[in-house]
């Protein structure tokens, strides 16, 4: 019959501690990964929400401007006392408002699209990084756990854990004084 090795309490505690550290590391990595993914998804959602809100606000400003322009032009038609210069001012103001609203809409689209592309690139980089970490953990997992076991037991690879007997060093014959 094979004799069972009795483990010392310190060995059991060492194994429990090592396994606990390993599990905690895995949990921390998984939590970090989930947190990064959630943060990026939330940021992307907020940017899209801000873009749509800004565009909706700009559309509202455009509608108010159109209504104001229509009302002002109607009042200018009915008021014969307004000089032609006043009508030119209204025309210039209307043209400026149209071009300003259009240009601001293009800036909104371009700016928010740049931010969204940035977030997509960061998300892609994060996923690539996570995939690399998982792959390296799988490749080095056996090596890592073997290294941890060696560290816990204090032995080098291929070395026996049995204690070695110390042997007395043999004295080399000393040469006498040179004659």
What do these coordinates show?
The protein is mainly α and about 180 residues long. The protein is built from 2 helices and no strands. Helix 1 (about 10-80) runs antiparallel to helix 2 (about 85-155). The longest helix is centred in the N-terminal third of the chain and has 70 residues, at about 10-80. It is rod-shaped. The two termini are about 65 Å apart.
Features:
single chain; 179 residues; mainly alpha; 2 helices; 78% helix
Say how many strands there are. 0
State the helical fraction: over 70%
Strand proportion: under 5%
Q: Total number of helical segments?
A: 2
Overall 3D geometry? rod-shaped
Poorly predicted runs: none
Major sheet, described briefly? none
List SSEs in N-to-C order. Answer: HH
Q: Determine the structural class based on helices, strands and strand pairing.
A: mainly alpha
Alpha-carbon distance between the two ends: 66 Å
Give the rounded overall mean pLDDT. 79
The radius of gyration is 39 Å
């Amino acid at each position: 019959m094979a004799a069972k090795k009795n483990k010392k309490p310190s060995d059991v505690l060492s194994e429990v501690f090592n396994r606990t550290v390993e599990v905690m590391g895995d949990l921390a990595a998984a939590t970090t990964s989930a947190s990064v993914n959630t943060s990026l998804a939330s940021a992307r959602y907020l940017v899209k929400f801000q873009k749509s809100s800004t565009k909706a606000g700009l559309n509202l400003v455009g509608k108010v401007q159109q209504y104001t322009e229509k009302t002002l032009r109607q009042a200018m038609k009915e008021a014969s006392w307004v000089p032609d210069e006043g009508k030119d001012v209204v025309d210039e103001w209307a043209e400026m408002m149209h071009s300003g609203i259009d240009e601001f809409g293009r800036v909104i689209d371009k700016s928010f699209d740049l931010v969204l592309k940035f977030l997509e690139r960061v998300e892609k980089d994060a996923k690539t990084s996570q995939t690399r970490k998982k792959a390296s953990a799988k490749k080095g997992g056996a090596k890592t756990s073997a290294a941890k076991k060696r560290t816990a037991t204090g032995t080098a690879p291929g070395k026996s854990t049995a204690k070695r007997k110390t042997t007395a060093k043999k004295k080399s014959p000393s040469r006498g004084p040179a004659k």
